[in-house]
Amino acid sequence: MNGIYAKFGLKKIGKVSDLQELYGLKVTRHRPTVADGKREYVYQIE
């Protein structure tokens, strides 16, 4: 999203909510534990 905004000269930061509002996509956020024991956010787009 940030690359697209920059290409058109828009000074905006891409966010997950943009995908939901502009394109009607359902985005869910999960926070699984990864191999090193840390928890990271993962987004699933449906």
User: In order across it, which strands form the biggest sheet?
Assistant: 1-2
> Helical content, roughly?
25-40%
What does the radius of gyration come to?
14 Å
What's the total helix number? 2
Which outline best applies? elongated
Could you name the key traits of this structure?
46 residues, alpha+beta, 2 strands, elongated
Structural features, described:
It is a single chain. The protein has helices spanning 2-7, 16-23, and strands at 27-30, 42-45. With 46 residues, it is an alpha+beta fold. The two termini are 17 Å apart. A two-stranded antiparallel ribbon has the order 1-2.
Q: Helices, strands, pairings?
A:
Layout: H1 2-7, H2 16-23, E1 27-30, E2 42-45
Antiparallel strand pairs: 1-2
What is the gist of this entry?
The protein is of the alpha+beta class. It has helices spanning 2-7, 16-23, and strands at 27-30, 42-45. The longest helix is centred in the middle third of the chain and has 8 residues, at 16-23.
